[in-house]
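call fold target=Lipoprotein-releasing ABC transporter permease subunit
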Amino acid sequence: MASYTRFLGLRYGFSRQRSRFTALVSLASMLGMMLGVASLITVLSVMNGFGGELRGRILALVPHAYVELHPKEQQAAADQKTDTTAELSAGLLSHPDVLAVAPFVRETVLFSGPYRQQGASLTGIDVEKQSGLTALDEFLLAGSLDDLNTDFTVILGAALARMLGVIPGDEIRIVLPQVSTTPLGLFPRSRLLRVVGLFEVGAQQDALLAYVSLNTANRLLKSGGTRGVQLRTSDLMTAPNLSHSLENEINGLGVYRPWSETQGSLFRAIRMEKITVSILLLSVVLVAAFNVVSTLVMAVTEKRRDIAVLRTMGATPIGISKIFLTQGLALALLGVWAGTVVGVLLSIYVADVVDFFERLFDARIFDPSVYFISRLPSQLMWGDVLVVGVAATLLSVIAAIYPAWRASRIAPAEVLRYE
């Protein structure tokens, strides 16, 4: 008798003696839970995949951190009165978490091509040290970083080159945010640069970035532009937390800016979108969970006589509640487990499923020229699976409480009065 609540709860939940309508509602609630859990796990995995793609593409060209010199130090570095970046680099390299350091110069400029003008961020880099900081050389479609050793040459993002209508070997005019004084008045400073290479990472950087050598950047910008050093740390994810530990090495010469600050808005937007979509899809699980209420309410109505008989045999109100809680949780957990299995399998093979439908209907869902990807990315995270499973189970428990409580309140005398 100690386990009668579990035995009766499972029997009521899966007995063939139920009415067809009650069985249909039970099946619907279980399938709804399964579909809700599977959809939530799959969508979260796809969003993790998109986030990973963006992180891999964007951060491939972004150093783990920058140290931007203070304006006074920038002016001194531009005038070459003191080699501030060399002093700063030596100090930073003494820190155990800093693996590589290189100076940079950056400014927003205007490129003028045969067809249109386009603004972009021009970065002057140390060609010899850049490979140790970013993966720029791995994404080059044409040319090499060594080509930048020739003065007044530039490597453009592929999208930026298409907008400007230039290819490697062409010359392009760059307009700087500075003016030159001439007998005819003030004119913006400009210079012709020769395009020697193109890079493409499949993200917004392809339309926003251009690279020149540090020597070319200094000759172009002279006293203008942001100056400092780029850093590569031992761990990308811990780079935002190194600000305090690098205070002595920076020695007040500049400001530490990790990648989470320069690119953080995009990844915060992705995280917020993931949370929003999760909440919306959780509503599907919520609807499925509260279908358990309908199932249990009908089960309680059908089993009023059984409840009355059990009460006369000594069953307590708490025992009656446990019977229907067990019934509701059995149906819900079966749906949660089935949904988890389906969701995990879909998350692993979703790219193959999409490829199958593309071949079946002879259509292209993800055009690489539009979405920068050719396959649907997916990254299964077991933490997401655990959270979804626990959330669905808790919602099922909450939904089952009220019908179970109502069952415990049934008075045996009223039910058996006319029997």
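return ok
The chain has a mean pLDDT of 82. DSSP finds 14 helices and ten strands in the chain.
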